[in-house]
Amino acid sequence: MFILLNIYLLFIKIKVLIIYLLTFIKIHDNHSIFIKFDKTTLIVLNMQNSTLFSSYDFLKDTWDEMFSNNDALRKQYEIISNYLQYTSPEELSKKEELSKQLFMHQGVTFTVYNDEKGIEKIFPFDILPRIITSKEWEKIENGIKQRITALNLFIKDIYNEQFIFKDKVVPANLIYDCPYFLREMKGVTPPFDIYVHITGVDLIRNNDGEFYVLEDNLRTPSGVSYMLENREISKRIFPGILPKCNVLSVSSYPDILYKKLRQCSTQDNPNVVLLTPGIYNSAYYEHTTLARLMGIELVEGSDLVVKDHVVYMKTTFGLKRVDVIYRRVDDDFLDPMEFNSKSVLGVAGIMSAYRKGNVTIVNAPGTGIADDKAVYTFVPDMIRYYLNEEPILKNIETYQLGKPEDFAYVKKNINKMVIKKTDGSGGYGMLMGHEASNEEIDDYFKVVNKNPAAYIAQPILKLSTAPCYIDGKLSPRCVDLRPFALYGPDGIDICPGGLTRVALKKGSLVVNSSQGGGSKDTWVIK
Amino acid sequence: MLSRVANNLIWMNRYMERGYSVLNLLKVNYSAHQDSPDLFPWTPIINNYCGSDSGFSSENSIECINHMIFNLDNQNSIINLVTRSRENARSVQEHIPRELWLGINSYYLYLTKPELPNKLYQEDPVVFLDRLLNHQLLYYGKIDITQERGSAYYFMDIGKFLERVIQISDLASMKLKEIAKTSDALERSFLWKNFLLSIGAYQLYLKKYKSTFQEDFIIKLIFQEQLFPKSLYYCVNKLSRHINQLIQTNELVNNDLEFLLGKLQSTIQYTTIESINEQGLTNFIASIKNDITNISLSINNVYFSNQS
C-alpha cells in the first residue's frame, strides 16, 4: 500500500515538472517573438541573417532613409527590419517574384514599342517600403499645401490682372517667352478659381535631412496608380506588418478624387469622365484603374463631340452631356481647333465649351506655365508675395549668374555645382562641376562671361538613399518622393503616401522609369 | 453606355467565341486524323480560317495545330484572337467584372509564354488543347456568375451568338463539301459524326436519336433543336431576344433589325426537311449566312450612325 502511494506521489511530481517545463518553453517562445529592439539585439540579430546587410555600403555625404550616420537603425524601420532578420533571402526572393507576377496578372504594365511589336513591361518594384514618420509627413503636407495655394494664385494672376508683374516680383518676359503660356486662357475663370486640381510635386531629401522641391508637375502628373498598386502588393508580401507599423491607408484616393471632381461642376448631378489618349499611351493602365475605381466612364477623344458649346459623349442612348473632364491629354492635343491641328486625341471645340463655362477641364489648360524651370526659381517669392508666409519646403538653391556675388560664389565652388542655361532643357549645355576638367571649366566660363544672365547654377544634388533588395542583399539606392495633392472647393487633400521612385542603378541619380528607375511602396506611419 | 464600349464588348466576345470553336475543331480533327488522315484532312480547316492563299500547307497534325494557335500572321490563330479580345476587354474594364479581366489577361499571359510552343511538340496535344479550352470555359463561367444582366451583358451575348451562328454555318458548309465527295455510306456516316463532334452536339444526338447517323436527324438537331445552345435555332432566338431588349431600352436603333431577325428565325424554324432537301442544304446554309451577315452589318451601322 505504502509503495503504491509513493509511486503515485512520484507520478504527480513528474507531471508537475512536465507542466513547469512546458510553461518555461512557452515563455521563451514568446520572448523570441517579441524582441525589444536596441543596438545590442540588432547586432545579435544581424548575425542570424548577416548576408542581407553584409554589403550595405553607404553613399558618401548622403542621407540614408533607414540608417543614421553612425549605422544606427532609424526608429521607423525597426519593425520591418526585425521582420527581415527572420526572413531568409530565398523567402525574400520568392516575395519579389510574387510581386512581379501580381503586377503582370493584373495587367499593371506599360507597353514599349519595338519594331512595331509592343512588349508589355512592368515598372520595376522594390519590395522594401520607404517609411516616412508622421512628423516628416506633417511638414511635407503643409509645405505642399502652401506651395500649391501660391501656385494656383499665381496662375490665376498671370491669366488675369497680372499684379505680380506690376509689383516686379516676377519679370513679365519670363512668362511671355514660355511655350506653356496659353494666350487662350487669358480672362478665363475656371469654377472656384481652381486651376491645379491634381498635382504630383517631386521632392528629394538632401544630405541635411530636409526635403526640397525638385519639380511641381502641375499638368497631368502620373504614377498615382502605382501608389495604390504598390500598397496592395505590400499587403500581400508583408502580411500583418502594415497594421503593426500603423501605416496610414492610401486607398481612399479615388474617393477623394471623385468628390473633388464632382464639386468642380455647378450641375446637380454632374457627369464626370476621364479622357485618355488611348491604349497606346504608356499610362493607359493608370487611366483604366482610376476610371474603374471611381466608377466613371473612360473616354477617348473620338467618344466626345461638341454641339452648341456643350460637350457630349456618344452613347448607345444617343448623346449624353459631359460636365467634368479629368483629362490625361496634354494641352497641345486637347483641341485641334485651337492648338495642334493634327491632334486626333482631343475634341474639336472643347476650348470654346470651356470658356463658356459649360464644362470643367481638370487640370485647367495653361497650368504648365507654373511648371517651367525658369518660373520654378520664383516660387518662394510667390509664396511670400501672395501668402505673406515663409516657404515651408525649400527650393533647390539656385544662383543667378547675372548677379556678381552669385557668380563669384559659383566660380569658387564650381566642383560642387551644376551650371545650366535658363532656356535649355533635356540636359543640354550643362556643366557638371564635379566631373569636368579644369580646362572644360575654363572654356565654359569663357562662354558664360559673354552673357551671365542666361545661366543659373545649382548645387549637385545628393538624393537620399533607401535600402533595396538587389541580388539577395540590401543595397542603398537613391530615391525621390512624389506625393499627390488634390485641390477642390473644400480645400487641398494629400493622400498620406505617394510614389517613391528609385534609381536602381548603383550610384545613379536618375529615377525615371525610362532610365532604369523603379518604385517602392511609401509608408507614412502614425 | 458609350457606343465604342458596346462595340468593344461585342468584339471581345466574338473573338473569344471564335477561339473556342477553333480549339474544339482542332481537338476533334486531331483525333479523327489519327483514325483516317484521308477522310479528315487539315487543309480545309486551314483554308477556312486562313484563306486558301495563306501560303501555309501541311498535313502534319502538330504543324497545323501550331499554325492555328501560335502563328502571328494567321489572323485567326488563337494567340491573335485572344490578344484582340483582351485589347477590347482592356478598354472596357470599368464595364466588366474584375474577375473577367484577370481571367482573360492570364489566358493571354499563358499563351504568350515563350516556352509554350515547345510544349506542343513535347506533350500530348489533347492535354495541351484541353488546357486552352479550360481558359475559354472559365471565361464563360466568369461571365455567367459575375456579369450584371444589363446592356453590357446583352451586347456581349450578341457578340457570342452572332459568332456562333457564323461558326456553325461555316463548319456545316465545310463538312458538306467533304461529304459530297464520297458516296460510300460508311464514310458519309463518319463525316456526319465528325461534324456533330466538332460542334459539340454528338452526345445530345446519341441521346435523342441513338447511334444511327441519318442526315435528316442531324440537320434537325443542328438547325432546329429548340433547347440546345449550339443549334442555330437557339442562337438566333437568343440573338433576337437580346437585340429586342436593347431596342426596347432604346440602346439600339431598330432600323431593319427586327425584320431581318424575324425573317431568319422563321426560315430556320419553319423550313421543313423536305424543302431543305429540295433547295439543297448548301443553298440553305448560304442563305442563312447571308442573313446573319446582314444582321451583323446592321448592328455595325447602328454603332457607326451613333458616332456622328
Automatic annotation (TrEMBL), chain A:
Keywords assigned by UniProt, alphabetized: Membrane, Transmembrane, Transmembrane helix
Keyword field contains Membrane: yes
Residue stretches making up the Circularly permuted ATP-grasp type domain: 129-503
Protein name as it appears in the record: Putative circularly permuted ATP-grasp superfamily protein
TM stretches of this protein: 7-25
Keyword Transcription: no
Superkingdom of the source species: Bacteria
Automatic annotation (TrEMBL), chain B:
Limits of the DUF403 domain: 1-304
Source domain of life: Bacteria
InterPro entries: ATP-dep_Glu-Cys_Ligase-2 (IPR051680), DUF403 (IPR007296)
Signal peptide: none
Official protein name in the record: Putative alpha-E superfamily protein
